[in-house]
Fold this sequence. Notes:
- By secondary structure, this protein is an alpha+beta fold.
- Among the domains are: 53-303 and 509-524, no CATH class; 532-640, Agglutinin, subunit A, CATH 2.90.10.10.
- It is 20% helix and 23% strand.
- The chain is built from 14 helices and 25 strands.
- The protein has helices at 18-21, 24-29, 55-58, 76-86, 93-109, 129-136, 149-155, 161-164, 195-211, 307-324, 333-341, 386-390, 446-458, 517-524, and strands spanning 65-72, 121-127, 186-192, 215-223, 245-246, 259-260, 263-269, 296-305, 416-422, 436-443, 481-489, 492-500, 504-514, 532-534, 539-540, 545-547, 551-555, 561-565, 570-573, 580-583, 589-592, 598-601, 611-614, 620-624, 627-632.
- The protein has a 4-stranded antiparallel beta sheet with strand order 2-3-1-4. A 4-stranded antiparallel beta sheet has the order 9-10-8-13.
- Helix 4 runs antiparallel to helix 14 and helix 10 (307-324) packs across helix 11.
Amino acid sequence: MQFTRRTVVQAGACTAAALVVGTPAAVAAAAPEPAPEPRQAGAELPLRTDTTTQGDILAGFRKDHACLLFVHFHDTKKARRWLGQLVPALSTTDQVTRFNAEFSAARNLRKGVDPTTMSSLWTGLSLTHAGLGFLAQRDPFPAVTPGSTAEAFHDGPAARAELLGDTGPSAPDSWLFGADPDGVHAVLTLAADDNGRLAKAIDQHLGSLDRSGAEVLFRQDGATLPGALRGHEHFGFLDAISQPGVRGFDRPDAGNGTTVHGKPGTRLVPAGEFLVGHERVGRRPAGLPAWATGGSFHVVRRLGQDVAGWWKQVDECLAELKKSGAAPADASPNWLAARMVGRWPGGAPVATCPAAERVPVPGEDIDGALDFHDDLQGWTTPLFSHIRKSNPRAGLTVAPGRPPLPAAEIDSRRVIRRGIPFGPAYRPGSGPAERGLVFVSHQADLVGQFEFIANRWSNNADFPPARHPRPGTDPVIGPPSPAAFESPSPSGSRATTLAFQRFVRTEGAVYAFTPSIPTLRALAEGRLDNAIEVHTGTVLRPGDTLDAGAVRLRFDTDGDLVLQDGEGRTLWNAGTSGAEAHFSGDGELTVRLADGRTAWSSKTAGHKGARLLVRPSGDTVIVQDGRTLWRVPGRRSPADAGA
């Protein structure tokens, strides 16, 4: 046991912002916040009726029973034929959204009881880097930039295990799937309300895969826990409560346009943070090939849970806190467990009801007042708690004594989580069993979202940064670590040091990509467009580079838009000293000065739906419906001089 007065600020606090939102360059680049959604209640929500994107990304399958098949292909022609037959059965955003809305309405009419007459079966498909390459018989990326999401996707989670904290018992050599980067080609997700219907679908797909010469490397079943544990994970806590709102999908609050209607605690995040091809925070470029447009990176992790061990640790740590006077003498194990998670088992945040659990009123947004801005020391919700480590909200400071960062600063770090428990519910004395959580997340940037949260926040004992003693790692999913349990004292703050061990073990992991329906159709025909696409609304700032291998489009540090070859030689330039380059929704590429004036233009305005592509073949084009509106050839010739 250790008591430490918080009076020391670690050296380097001025650079601690890198742990919060990334490198200093990234901080500066993300400064402008996109304009909010229209404030009228009837604002258009085009993403809800999207028939080209797969349904689990934004709408969510939300079923009681699920099965994930991890597939390896052996014959390219047969695999493409199988894919072509599967595509019509894949569930789209439009289909899933409509069913979920009807199901929720029926549930509300039944005062929270699920309707028994409504049932559906959802199907989703994602492909790994190896799977995309196998089906296309070409590398999915024209270039792989160090530190990029393309690199993370290419490597796969096994190669990045140390960064993700997957060491010791969680190391890849003990995984059930995903250890071999060339093993899993596809993840087929099936989800249903009725387990019998799901079982029939699984049998049908297993037969189809067998006929195509494919091999199922691993089958992962999952199901909602029964009875009072419905909706909870095995430690006993309600799961996947706090999801980000998505602009263009979730209805904005009519009063402010920045939060979800009826959920004042849920910020609306630009759709491009989850679905490639839409506007991102700060209108940043995705830098991804055209095949990625309309899709999302798909993280799957099998997390085994030692329930008895975790709760035994809770008892031991609670005894330490009572001994130090940091916990009430009558505090129950739930009192500390809730602080480790940040929520009571029923989902209510400790921040809003610290003394005891409160059952939310039906329809209430239980996170409405949750942002930690008034608990910067972590006296109510510890700084190491699971929900603060994965989403600090408006309670994050770069150093003690500094004002908290606005919640908008971390919009680009959010992920959409989908998951389901596996294995039997834990009962005291029931003995060991395989149980845990199938963690699933969707995001547009593996490095900037999932990996950043895991490496820089959850698994980092020094986050929030520049504090003494250090807060410790996430006590639910993080590696072993001493943790500082903060509590008020007459002289300020005191810290009781607790020793958290790890009771969640990674048993398998895959990085995949959930492509759009058009991309899957093209793949079934052996086509994969790996030109780098610059999506409408994107802004390039000094230093931004879009690398297509043979050529790269770069907005230079001196404000010039430049096309370079693979060795960095200039093939074309706009001849400007601008502040940013912008590709507009009507198909015009411009370089703008700091005062907003146009310094250069492609002169292609008036072409809504046009696409800007940097092609591995060497040229950069703006095209619409197969017609080239503007082109910079990759090789300079006298005819190209005036381009």
